[in-house]
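JOB MANIFEST
job_type = single_chain_structure
chain_count = 1
residues = 493
[input]
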Amino acid sequence: MGNKNACIIVDLRSGEHLVHVPEIVTVLAAAGWKTEVALKEYGGETLQLAQKAAKEKYDLVIGYGGDGTLNALLNGTMYAQGKGVIADIPGGTFNVWAKAIEMPEDPVKAALALVDSEPRSLDLGHLEATGLTSINDARNARQPASKGKKSKKSKESTNTRHYFLLNVGIGLDASMMAHMSKPLKYRVGPLAFDLAAAKELPSQRPFPVELQQTDDNGHVIDRWRGDVWEAYVSKVPLFAGAINIEPGSRADDGLLYVTLITANGPLKTIGQAVSLLTQHQPDRKITTYFHGTHFSLRIPASIDIQVDGSAVKPEDLLPKAEQSTLQQSNDPEQLLVDYHFDARPKALHVAVPRTYAGPLFEKTAQKEDTSPQEQLPLAKQQPAKAPQPTQPQSEEKNPAQQNPAYNIEVIGSIAPQGKQPTIIVAGKFKKQDTDEVQVLAVRVNKRTQVLNQAGEHVSPATLLALQEGQTILAEGEKTKRGVIKATCVKLAD
């Protein structure tokens, strides 16, 4: 992607994220991006910050957090009818989407991948609770919705997660999410989910589900009724980063996928658990599948629900008129919630690394044929003169002196596509007087001389073969954002 006006929304769950924000901004600045930073300070604020960023028409809105942060980002963008691209830099306990698109976990490497990303059209799922029914009343109307068009909708809250990118889970996994300690999650990471599972599993029981599938005109085309341990409605099939709920689904195929982990007795339940643990997918022989664009599920109000890994209360999804009924109920098991799911094709654009070639997308990305060597020819050769390392004391350049040189320990490099051929090398620079380590980004263009260890001119594309931990010597002016506009780069080892 070319030069952008970007906003990065940071989840301040702890100081660990804040430390890396300047490093991310440095890499983005080297790519010519102007980046504003918005800090999430309390629960639910990401939705508001995302809506604000979408209204201010940033080209790119970046979430730096986990899947919950990304979900809030896409919901805020949809509510504000934003047209910009959204992106994800992994920084949470669970980063399922980032792993799925092969985004590096290291924030500097992720920023490098982001500047060489491309916008991909992406479907979303949409969830709403359309009604609340008592079990007694439901006996005379067994299905969650009648034929024909749906009843008039009430205006949905923009403070609730109605859109999803990964999946909505109803039942076992949602119960674990709802009862997982957040302080513990921040301390021990995914282990907190395992501890919640050990606590919740003994109390879990199968629950009844009534499913109805409709076409675009609201006509019923399929029905199902039975007891399940878990119901998933997926757009992207991955759960917990390893389990593939529905291998055939794609992020841009315009469909939703419903997976019902049915209750089939103790032995088959054990077999299902073994399949999930060893094969990383449900046992298809004892799992029920549907795919389509519109589904309704009638489920007891006592059953927990999660949206892209974040627990959501059923009452928050209901129309206001029925929220109080559920909140005041002494026995939510006697009430049934009608959840309605719709596929929203091509709902927004998401930044995906240009190198991604996995199975998430049905439509392949357009590939550029231009190689780094063709984009960035050798600089006009001058007498080879290696830069001499010095220790700058300020950001300002003394006209009477040559540009200072910086000894950089490489983290990674990238050649982003753009109008102006450029290579960016990010790395660590240790200040000699304080031993402080700073991440800098070296910007190499067609005027930059690149020398090997013998002081001979080499192709700038050589920089793309650098391995993490190698050292380069970069000469040039350093900006306040930590970008070195390199005039000469020498491979030091």
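[summary]
The chain has 13 helices and 23 strands.
The first strand starts at residue 5 and ends at 11.
exit_status = 0
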